[in-house]
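User: Before I run my own analysis I want an independent prediction to cross-check against. Here's the chain; please return only the structure tokens and, at the end, one sentence I can use as a sanity check.
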Amino acid sequence: MSGPVPVPDPIAFLAGTWSTRRQLLDRSTGTTGTFSGTTTFTPDGGGLRWDEEGTVCWASFRGPATRSYRIDPGGPGDTGATVTFPDGRVLCHLDLRSGTARDEHACSPDTYRVHFTVTAYGTVDYSWDVTGPAKDHLLTTVLTRTGAPSAPSTDGPGAPTPQDAA
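Assistant: Structure tokens:
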């Protein structure tokens, strides 16, 4: 199946371990780089802890890199989720009911625009387009579920279950 794949419950869908591949581009200098590693979405208090670790190769640097976020379900009647930094500031909103989500995050002096697409039950593509006076970057990521089934069981049309996401 090719995407976008509708995801009614992003918390259940994302839970588990994913292989991570990212292409980095500084458009102002033409510098390119990569990140490769693992992203783990761990159930935590009704939401998920989002932990990423791996190796970044960028310009003259090659070494370990980590980052963490939190994903919490939306409020009553909201099937989306909110991604926050560890200190609670909102990074972006994530509503994958249509299989895609877009949002924008102002991080003065720059603007970060994100676009997520679920291209298969075991693959999520997302990119951050960062523009402004300080940065002109494009960060393109592919998450591939580790040990992903080819298609999940469903509770309803197109609804991945928590067992499929583990």
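Sanity check: The chain has two helices and ten strands.
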